[in-house]
């Protein structure tokens, strides 16, 4: 059964094409073009609206009132919220918890990923983080990356650990990076006190992402450039950016895009309140209060994730940071795919790519979502 999307304004990392058509068979794009399209079993008239690739979120903790740390049912409910906002492929992120709890969660994510190809695997944001940069992670559960513990976590994930965040200054961290890279895990540095020099060393050892750039790490100082500048300078490194207008000022976000063209991945770092309402929520073992859409550890000024969805990040990028639409869409699609070495299957509306697509109106709001060729 084939589906033809026609009369679209296609926008992806390769640019804009008007009067675009896309022929889909099963879960794959067969061909694309513009003007009159071929015959198909089903036709979808896009009506001149934007058609962009499905969004990919490298880093999120929940949504719709549900947390990824609370078991399979909660994971699936949170994923449904983000899918309604255009995120067709998700990495499920876990905060720092006791190792036994993390092993259980990794095993549950592996089961979900086995059954649902839209789930790319797991991201361990903890427990190998710096105490002084822990943010909304419970300091009681932070630890140094002992080799046998890294191996236990890898085993629990059963090949589905996609990403892990590590503070490279911790004892054994560089050796852990070696082990993880060899196992095919994408290593990120974050929640760290790393200097410019130490960040460069981590990147040379194989780390390829900087977790939510500027947040939970040293900033840029004229005599101490820090990990942010190290990431700017390294063409191998992808920079996660939480673009909700709060975590990073929109003008600083524009500087990030200019300093690392094609290497910025917009992420949500969303906790359970994304797509939900203000109030108290759990983030791992900690309580978070959301007021006017801003999540903070209860009783503190510490930001605790976001209430962001990726379509909101797209609008902030275009409307407040002045990023061109093509570059903003790239940061939601092809760049995160590259970060996970999935760029040959995801991130473009082109033949041979996964049939993931989002229909947006002229205000950049999601109206319909398809994943693997199915409307979701």
TrEMBL record:
Keywords: Carbohydrate metabolism, Hydrolase, Metal-binding
Residues in coiled coil: none
Cofactor binding: number and manner: Binds 1 divalent metal cation per subunit.
Binding site for Zn(2+): 125, 191, 212
Pfam family, any one: Amidohydro_1
InterPro entries per record: Amidohydro-rel, GlcNAc_6-P_deAcase, Metal-dep_hydrolase_composite, Metal_Hydrolase
UniProt entry tagged with the keyword Transmembrane helix: no
Keyword Hydrolase annotated: yes
Highest taxon listed in the record's lineage: Bacteria
Residue stretches making up the Amidohydrolase-related domain: 51-374
GO molecular function term, any single one: metal ion binding
Any one biological process term the GO annotation gives: N-acetylglucosamine catabolic process
Cofactor needs: a divalent metal cation
Active site: 269 (proton donor/acceptor)
Residues at which substrate binds: 136, 215-216, 223, 247, 303-305
Family: Belongs to the metallo-dependent hydrolases superfamily. NagA family.
Name the UniProt record assigns to this protein: N-acetylglucosamine-6-phosphate deacetylase
Organism: Conyzicola nivalis
């Amino acid at each position: 059964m084939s589906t033809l999307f026609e009369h679209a304004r296609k926008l992806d990392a390769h640019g804009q094409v008007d009067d675009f058509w896309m022929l889909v068979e099963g879960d794959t794009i067969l061909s694309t073009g513009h003007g009159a399209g071929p015959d198909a079993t089903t036709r979808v008239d896009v009506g001149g609206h934007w058609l962009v690739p499905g969004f990919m979120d490298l880093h999120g903790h929940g949504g719709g009132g549900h947390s990824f740390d609370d078991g399979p049912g909660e994971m699936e409910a949170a994923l449904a919220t983000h899918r309604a906002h255009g995120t067709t492929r998700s990495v499920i992120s876990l905060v720092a918890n006791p190792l036994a709890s993390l092993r259980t969660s990794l095993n549950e994510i592996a089961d979900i990923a086995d059954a649902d190809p839209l789930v790319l695997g797991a991201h361990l944001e903890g427990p190998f983080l710096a105490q002084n940069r822990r943010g909304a992670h419970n300091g009681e559960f932070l630890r140094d990356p002992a080799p046998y513990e890294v191996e236990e976590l890898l085993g629990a994930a059963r090949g589905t650990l996609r990403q892990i965040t590590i503070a490279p200054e911790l004892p054994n961290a560089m050796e852990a990076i070696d082990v993880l890279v060899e196992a095919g895990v994408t290593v990120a540095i974050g929640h760290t006190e790393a200097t410019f020099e130490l960040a460069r060393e981590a990147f040379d050892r194989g780390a390829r992402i900087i977790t939510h750039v500027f947040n939970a790490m040293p900033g840029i100082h004229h005599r101490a450039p820090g990990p942010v500048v190290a990431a700017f300078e390294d063409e191998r490194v992808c920079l996660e950016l939480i673009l909700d207008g709060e975590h990073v000022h929109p003008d600083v976000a524009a500087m990030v895009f200019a300093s690392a063209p094609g290497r910025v991945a917009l992420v949500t770092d969303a906790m359970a309140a994304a797509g939900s309402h203000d109030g108290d929520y759990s983030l791992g073992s900690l309580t978070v209060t959301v007021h006017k859409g801003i999540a903070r550890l209860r009783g503190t000024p510490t930001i605790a994730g976001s209430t962001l969805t990726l379509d909101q990040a797209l609008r902030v990028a275009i409307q407040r940071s002045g990023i061109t639409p093509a570059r903003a869409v790239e940061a939601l699609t092809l760049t995160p795919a590259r970060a996970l070495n999935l760029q040959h299957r995801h991130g473009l509306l082109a033949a041979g790519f996964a049939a993931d697509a989002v229909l947006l109106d002229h205000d950049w709001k999601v109206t319909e979502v398809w994943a693997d060729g199915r409307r979701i």
